[in-house]
Amino acid sequence: MCGIVGIVGKSNVNQALYDALTVLQHRGQDAAGIVTCDSGRLFLRKDNGLVRDVFHQRHMQRLIGNMGIGHVRYPTAGSSSSAEAQPFYVNSPYGITLAHNGNLTNVEQLSREIYEADLRHVNTNSDSEVLLNVFAHELAGGGKLRPNQDDIFNAVRAVHNRCRGGYAAIAMITGYGVVGFRDPNGIRPIVFGKRDTEHGVEYMIASESVALDVLGFELIRDLEPGEAVYITNDGQLHTLQCATNGHYAPCIFEHVYLARPDSMIDGVLVYKARLRMGEKLAEKILRERPDHGIDVVIPIPDTSRTSAVELANHLGVKFREGFVKNRYIGRTFIMPGQAARKKSVRQKLNAIELEFRGKNVMLVDDSIVRGTTCKQIIQMAREAGAKNVYFCSAAPAVRYPNVYGIDMPSAHELIAHGRTTEEVAELIGADWLIYQDLEDLVEAVREGNPNITEFDCSVFDGKYVTGDVNEAYLGKIEQARNDAAMSQGNVASAIIDLHNN
Amino acid sequence: MCGIVGIVGKSNVNQALYDALTVLQHRGQDAAGIVTCDSGRLFLRKDNGLVRDVFHQRHMQRLIGNMGIGHVRYPTAGSSSSAEAQPFYVNSPYGITLAHNGNLTNVEQLSREIYEADLRHVNTNSDSEVLLNVFAHELAGGGKLRPNQDDIFNAVRAVHNRCRGGYAAIAMITGYGVVGFRDPNGIRPIVFGKRDTEHGVEYMIASESVALDVLGFELIRDLEPGEAVYITNDGQLHTLQCATNGHYAPCIFEHVYLARPDSMIDGVLVYKARLRMGEKLAEKILRERPDHGIDVVIPIPDTSRTSAVELANHLGVKFREGFVKNRYIGRTFIMPGQAARKKSVRQKLNAIELEFRGKNVMLVDDSIVRGTTCKQIIQMAREAGAKNVYFCSAAPAVRYPNVYGIDMPSAHELIAHGRTTEEVAELIGADWLIYQDLEDLVEAVREGNPNITEFDCSVFDGKYVTGDVNEAYLGKIEQARNDAAMSQGNVASAIIDLHNN
Amino acid sequence: MCGIVGIVGKSNVNQALYDALTVLQHRGQDAAGIVTCDSGRLFLRKDNGLVRDVFHQRHMQRLIGNMGIGHVRYPTAGSSSSAEAQPFYVNSPYGITLAHNGNLTNVEQLSREIYEADLRHVNTNSDSEVLLNVFAHELAGGGKLRPNQDDIFNAVRAVHNRCRGGYAAIAMITGYGVVGFRDPNGIRPIVFGKRDTEHGVEYMIASESVALDVLGFELIRDLEPGEAVYITNDGQLHTLQCATNGHYAPCIFEHVYLARPDSMIDGVLVYKARLRMGEKLAEKILRERPDHGIDVVIPIPDTSRTSAVELANHLGVKFREGFVKNRYIGRTFIMPGQAARKKSVRQKLNAIELEFRGKNVMLVDDSIVRGTTCKQIIQMAREAGAKNVYFCSAAPAVRYPNVYGIDMPSAHELIAHGRTTEEVAELIGADWLIYQDLEDLVEAVREGNPNITEFDCSVFDGKYVTGDVNEAYLGKIEQARNDAAMSQGNVASAIIDLHNN
Amino acid sequence: MCGIVGIVGKSNVNQALYDALTVLQHRGQDAAGIVTCDSGRLFLRKDNGLVRDVFHQRHMQRLIGNMGIGHVRYPTAGSSSSAEAQPFYVNSPYGITLAHNGNLTNVEQLSREIYEADLRHVNTNSDSEVLLNVFAHELAGGGKLRPNQDDIFNAVRAVHNRCRGGYAAIAMITGYGVVGFRDPNGIRPIVFGKRDTEHGVEYMIASESVALDVLGFELIRDLEPGEAVYITNDGQLHTLQCATNGHYAPCIFEHVYLARPDSMIDGVLVYKARLRMGEKLAEKILRERPDHGIDVVIPIPDTSRTSAVELANHLGVKFREGFVKNRYIGRTFIMPGQAARKKSVRQKLNAIELEFRGKNVMLVDDSIVRGTTCKQIIQMAREAGAKNVYFCSAAPAVRYPNVYGIDMPSAHELIAHGRTTEEVAELIGADWLIYQDLEDLVEAVREGNPNITEFDCSVFDGKYVTGDVNEAYLGKIEQARNDAAMSQGNVASAIIDLHNN
Predict the structure, then answer these.
(1) Which chains contact A through at least 3 pairs of Cβ atoms less than 8 Å apart?
(2) What share of chain A is helix, strand, coil (3-state, %, to 5)?
(3) Do residues B19 and B167 both lie within one domain?
(4) CATH number reported for the structural domain that contains residue C431 in this entry
(5) Per-residue pLDDT tens for B50-92?
(6) Are residue C212 and residue C354 in the same domain, yes or no?
(7) Number of C-alpha atoms within 13 angstroms, CB side, residue A218?
(8) Quick check: B121 and D44 CB within 8 A?
(9) D2 labelled catalytic
(10) Could you list the residue range(s) of the whole structural domain that residue D227 is in?
């Protein structure tokens, strides 16, 4: 998962891009980058780290220009390397830079094709670099000295024909404009909006509407599946549906965990979807455990808080913040002659005994992935004196890997993979465990926009909407993850991106 | 306000000090420092920045030794400089390092005295350096080649006789041990605890009990007002009441805002005190506004959440997280030829319209200081569609400056200074405003430990428990603040601490 | 002027490239870069600064691979920007990186052509990026999936047809090999050599033979004008004359000042050429000033020492190091409210009075460019008590700008531009001044290799061997220099290279 | 060996101190520091590295004040740690900072005494910190609130009574002035001078006169053995002989190698002393090898050049710079799985074959210490084709360790320790070897100032002028060196100085 943003403004856009990236920082804390364009010249700064650490005064001063794009990165499943920050750049045609959120499932084939067709060298493991080269190749095919919106949209159309997977991308054509496009299933989110300034109208494209809100932009709408938006450097906005086979199947996990609650995705307010998840979960509890005997509902901070408040309301049980999160987690250093110790959950959360002692507590989390943290938290609750510890997950059991850009473990690392709810409950040490039903989750989100008839729920049901994900593919990415993990000791940071120091 | 910690352990204490400082980071994000002692030699690292930014692998590797102290700093009122990180060091006698939380009110006189009596040069504006030199001078007076607990306690006694103000301090005597002491009114908090390890018992002294919890130490108790605890480097723990005039008057603002909710201060769980603040505030609302018509209670994140939950419970009104906090605030850069822009509250908080549109909302904050943020938040609530915006403060009106170590503005900057509640309500734009009554606040805390008969409530009632704070003193620190503010443009960072690069 | 190096080895070449760059550091102290290739992937590190400051352990560890190229940069005349470090990279075709020494005189036309023909965006002011794109375009024209030596040489041939100016370049074709080529006049130097290792033969291409010597490579020979050498990644070496119009006219200024004395360029040992310059200068002095009355010959350290020793020998006069060079020059800092002060020559040189007091001293420098330093040095000699100060230059009067890659001032800044020797002598304050005659300089170098019939002596005689340099061109680069100088205050470092942070 | 400087000026002295340190940088490239005093407050910056790397604009801006001292450090023999940069600071009395060049031979006893007498903790292995504490203790003894010159001189007198060894030191008394003092034998050099400015007379104290020259100060004179100079902050200069037993025995090695040739030490111009070393060496060669058959004299750059020129003159043989020094030496990096390789002399020097091929060459070095470099250079000369390689040393055989502040190996590492000239010649591979005779060396220096009747020549003759250096002491420092070397792998940088980050 990553966050992307692009702005075509009327004065320097560096500060606005920077601010937007801080608002999108929850989508990726691993690396950050901004490229701006001024008088046909590009200015780039990117590096590993948080936005606030990557950009200093001296960098910002150089990022001049009224047009630019930015990126925050979270390592993507299937990519063994963590060394590539975005935006990426190719100099032909026109000089194109691109920021990408998602994952291509046919990246190997594409990589081969662009080398064979165009002799284009791809220097990283990043599918984003491949996506950029595919787009560049298709745009070059037009051969226009000065590309217009039709050329841009034709290139996006060709990208849709060739690329498989989930992707939302923002590219800048040096000297011409900024284009945003979304995969034909609309798996990854992307919105655009505008604001009026004294110098004229400015446009922003971003992963989430909250970036628009905070910067005073007004949301126009989400890009539709397969649609592209192109804003020329003089401020003309064009949109076109570039996919013939597009149909809406957005990633439901955005609503469960990824997105900020105050974002509006595909017409659904994430916050409200989460409230409804709490409601529906409460109904299930009341249905399955009418005599639940719960004394207090306690969220695992921070994501599950919204669901948990409403769950408590519907159960008619007290909501209490029984865990305090340590907001300033540090590192564990290895001293000479010492083995590495694992950061335990104790360093991240502290239990307020008062809320646990002698009570039946219902812990609420947004989802359960590996289950290791769950287990420790339940243990903490018991040590704090809880009589019984119940656990519920606002999402169904996570049983399958994600292939559309969320960094999720491979199947065998998922605690619920091939296990029943009872087996998971026992493994994590809960007195009982309740998962949201998938229909309920879908309903909780759909109520916000009944026009969406389908979601990508692959991590829950193993159905991959792009139709090209089979056992062989899943086996290959699992192998890649394992290889990456094993070699991490000595190669982890062995790759210097070409565009970086 | 600062956070302090000291550990006498059985193996290297660097990681434990580091972890403790991250847990105490909410008490100061301005600078951090650790000094350790090994075989009579000190190892120091301190710098401006967060704990995670100040200490790198190379620093930690050098911070060897089984004994050490640490500090996180928040700039203190009355100090015009922000350049001094702690711990401080003097080499005579014994080599002493010290970390301090609080503020001395007679620092000028002390500074003069230590120069005249001992020719001791103080190189910073920090009262902590003065406190260290007073302690060092008194300890040197013993003239012992090898100081024991009596010498240490005598020195603390003399410190109490000479120093005025609020202070909790931890000092390390090179080669001998670590001593913690608390001012005779117990204004600033300090606790100590222990943990068993395979190598023996380890002791920790810290500003808040949460540092003990997270590191697996068991809280023994708070230091009493005027009391000192001395732990020798071989693990003997001694305590002694070193003040003759000690009486309990701890700072109530720790419970309102400063401390983590999961800390236990002077026998009171901060979290529970805040729940009671919510209760009592609800009672006042029901009393004064029986037909309040409130639709939803919304906290200003993060501190007020605990009070707000309970306030909502007692009002029987929905509690909702209507504001989402941006956790990754960045900087505002100044581009050439541009004026500095102020970060607005919009970049810190985003309103979820759904919770405001057409409703009577009750916003809850822990306290109101300058009122500028309040005003912007209320404006945001209105822009989000609120019908009426009510505001309540879990603490009474803040009307007086703090002189015991909390960085509070001077009187004329406090919105409630010399104003009625109605006047403040009008200034911040609230439809109505309710402050907690001071008796209720005191009661909310006291219920946790009825033995405490008095609190320092000076910011609310202008009564300074040390008895030495008069108009002249307050005028002087106000002047100092103004001078500092005015010269900040060109001198702010003009001071290099002697112990720093 | 820059230094370039490329190695195709049998194990990691990073250390060897690094060492070679330190040996070539005299050719450019402004920036440094290395790119290596391993398994079809490139690893790059480049930044402003000396070699020893640019490469740290963490960078070197990532620069893996048996093949790579490196660069040290000196800002080139005509380039207004100092922000581009090399090697440069384009990803199509194959992924090509390039390091360049020299200057193209038709860069504007080329830049336009490559955009129009190939839509290739050039993001810097660097002619090296243009050269790379021309080469890339020509190599792409072959369209081969796997290029062989013929494809490479054809591309070089096309480069020679299109590019004007002086250039020695080393390019790496990702996965295939390293190619070095030299402009058809052989203006800039480039050599290649080999060494045997236990794993097989390794090849190096470099600006100067001294890089070969120090690393234990044996000089094979200089590339001939227009010739290219291509070493495949498995160690096959191919050479081909790629120019039809090549004729030898190497830059004579390499011998005067640029090259290290222990380098062998075009068959001439620089050191020996300088000895002969001293001899010939002595003969001229004896001829023109038979009663010279010189008491001591004193070089201006460091370059002129070789000529000066031999000059003294031939005059039969003592040679003495009367000036001591300060090897650790620092910066002049600007304090608030202070005007910038110029570093005077006094901070670089200190005169030993003993060698000046009451004597007729002959100061020897390699050449006189602006004359400002000369003037100060002569003044120092007088202050040290010299009776008469004579000055001689091992090179003729510098009267014209350089357009082939040496950073020389524009014409009007050259003290000898439009002035007689006597006028220059008066301006610099010398009692008399002797310049080497151009025929003598040419002879001094040619004696080392009589096969070279012509040199580029343009800075002395204004004859530009490429035939395309006219008044209009010179006027344009002079204007560019002026513009650059004027805007330096606020834009100097305003350009971030795309490949840099 | 270190370089020290102190200035009492009429405006900010930071730039002047910085410039002076760059001029003294040859005395120590390991660390650098400056402390200034303004309005009773100290500003310090020190760190490992060259002067140009330690001080940036932000540091310089903070180093305000008209008075200050500076230091460049070379690790001293007998000190196992390399982590302490100077100046050092103690806060009592007055706040004193000190920069020291030399070595105390009774540091252990002093360290014990100052702890016992004053409970002063010394946190480093540096004898400089001990010297500072002794001085501070003695100055505190006066007990004056405002010390005058008598108090200062009394403290220096007491230092002389208690300290043994060689030392030149500059201390600053915060708010009062700067004092320089020299050990009673005058082993280490120290001079002072003045310059007139529009604001009044400014004074500088420095290790070498060249720092005065370059900054436009006029040399007043050397401090005499045991003498002190005190310059008050308002510009009054006082001097006093503070030793009763002082007698001149300056270190002769300053003239051989340490000092810059353009420095005047104890009335002797180092440059001229080196010329005379060349003369006397020539005479010895002519005496011992009348038929020497030498074709060319070649110096090992840089120090021996002065002697070699004159040696060649007196022999009537050509002087030629046959070795070219690489001025930009880099590091050798350790790649994973690779053993560390030693930098060979080949990376530092390159031989110009022309000057060696078929010739009898006389190589000249200033001295021979370990002999390892010599051996490699002679080997290079042979590989370059020399017929015979003769070697001469401008100093006698180095056979004993230095205990007065020069970082010299211990006895058993000295190639000449216990060996005859012939044995050394064989070991280094020279056809024959000639050492300067000690009487000749002494004479070469003494001719510059016949008033000096004795020199410290201990490295040549094993006679230590302080009279307290015996076998036991030498054994102890040898042991300390060995321990340090052995533990370097894991502890080398394990010490953080208290005053550093």
Answers:
(1) B, C
(2) 35, 25, 40
(3) yes
(4) 3.40.50.2020
(5) 999 999 999 999 999 999 999 999 865 444 344 589 999 999 9
(6) no
(7) 6
(8) no
(9) yes
(10) 3-247
